[in-house]
Design a protein that fits this description.
about 450 residues, alpha/beta, Urease, subunit C, domain 1, TIM Barrel, nine-stranded mixed β-sheet, 18 strands, binds zinc ion
């Protein structure tokens, strides 16, 4: 007896540590929420999971998403980013009040966890309700106040947004859940003026907060930003002081040499969202080039209004295949590199690499276990390759966050699936139009 939980004789484990190794037939012991041992014959534990059909790996880190937008799934099809935003913003005014965000985030958090995502960087309105919902379902949920220079569907004025942001570290503390840093989320340079961005930068510096924003998602965003500010988005972020903080940039599809040099020099990360970028025909981010220039790249799904699901396995496969196609080179990006991008690199971008992102003794046990006893996963020659090119999110059988079993045998240990689904459906159909808003 010793540990609280033991995964005994896992068939494969992807460590995602600096060695990039994988091992076979290994025990993983969890104690007090942390990985207490990795090795052979680690003895007994309070509860034991038979690992003989399991592939264990760190939980996936979705580095750019909008969980509540599960409620807007399928809302904007066959349109580009700008057409997409028009439709989304109209519908957000109708259903994304605090109750809608709570229901949508619970649905998104459940979808994410069942699919092997244990950490999300989630940007949305009503962050308190979103965080409450995500923590309730069991996610490690990095979020924070969202900023627009104009009132959005949440009807907040600038000063109210700043007040929310100043109180955010306390709010996080009061809501509990797995450790996350405070975050501040200016939507984008085309929706938040440079002066306002500077205010956010100053507060982020004071709080030690992570900053997350959209940047250079497509060519038109770049040209619109140049027209409005005289600068490209990354230069505007630099001028405001945000870039110096090493933020996470959602998308980063159209980055020129100057942008890349600034991003690399500041330790800024790019959240690559291939599903959304392909679907909206935004472009193909040159993540191979970014990595060669020392830019940290993580993987995201974006929200369900643009990419329709929160499937990180699909995102990993798309990222790999897209990089190979763009470079006309089947070795442009390896399965191992993309798994690292979706785990330890994502953790690093969030400032969480000392806690999560790899299987190492002392880290918090954010782990997922895939059932490899399936026809499409036989045989396994290199488990990284199997994870990226053969496995899917429905292969995820168990999910642990900070050592706590959140999903067991493909069912949430925290919430009733039917209840979460019913509440989400109700939030979409029950919402009434706001005054002055036309129902679509
Ligand atoms: Zn986004």
């Amino acid at each position: 007896m010793g540990s609280d939980l033991l995964i005994r004789r896992a068939r494969y484990a992807l460590m995602c540590d600096e060695s990039g190794a994988w091992v076979e037939d290994i025990d993983i012991a969890i104690e007090g929420g942390r990985i207490a041992g990795v090795g052979r014959d680690l003895g007994d534990a309070g509860s034991v999971i038979d690992g003989r059909d399991l592939l264990v790996m760190p939980g996936l880190v979705n580095l750019h998403t909008h969980l509540a937008m599960t409620l807007l799934r399928g809302i904007a099809e066959e349109v580009d980013l700008q057409g997409f935003l028009e439709r989304v913003w109209a519908e957000e005014s109708r259903i994304m009040n605090a109750a809608g965000v709570y229901a949508g985030t619970r649905l998104g958090a459940l979808e994410a966890l069942l699919g092997g995502t244990t950490t999300t960087l989630d940007m949305y309105f009503h962050p308190r309700e979103a965080h409450r919902a995500a923590v309730d379902v069991g996610l490690r949920h990095v979020t924070g106040p969202l900023f627009f220079s104009f009132p959005g569907p949440d009807h907040l004025q600038w000063d109210e947004r700043m007040a929310l942001a100043r109180a955010w570290p306390k709010t996080l503390e009061s809501l509990g859940g797995p450790f996350v840093p405070p975050a501040l989320m200016p939507h984008a340079v085309f929706t938040v003026g440079v002066d306002n961005l500077s205010e956010i930068a100053a507060l982020a510096r004071e709080q030690g907060a992570l900053v997350h924003t959209h940047a250079s998602e497509n060519d038109r965003e770049n040209s619109d930003t140049i027209e409005a500010t005289g600068m490209r988005p990354v230069s505007a972020l630099n001028a405001s002081g945000i870039l110096a903080l090493g933020p996470v940039l959602g998308h980063g599809v159209r980055l020129d040499e100057h942008d890349r040099a600034l991003i690399s020099a500041t330790g800024t990360s790019v959240a690559h969202c291939p599903g959304s970028n392909l679907k909206l025909a935004s472009g193909a981010a040159d993540i191979v080039g970014y990595r060669e220039q020392g830019i940290r790249v993580g993987i995201g799904t974006d929200g369900c209004s643009s990419s329709n699901d929160l499937d990180m396995f699909a995102a990993m496969r798309l990222a790999t295949n897209l990089a190979r196609l763009v470079h006309d080179d089947p070795a442009a990006l390896s399965a191992r590199d993309v798994v690292r991008a979706a785990t330890i690199e994502g953790a690093r971008a969030l400032g969480l690499a000392d806690r999560i992102g790899s299987i190492e003794v002392g880290k918090e046990a954010d782990l997922i276990a895939l059932d490899v006893n399936a026809p499409h996963l036989v045989p396994v020659r290199d488990p990284y390759t199997s994870v990226v090119f053969s496995a899917g999110r429905s292969d995820v059988r168990h999910v642990f966050v900070a050592g706590e079993p959140i999903v067991l045998d493909r069912r949430s240990a925290r919430v009733d699936h039917d209840n979460v689904i019913a509440e989400a459906r109700r939030a979409v159909t029950d919402a009434s139009p706001r005054a002055g808003q036309q129902r679509l």
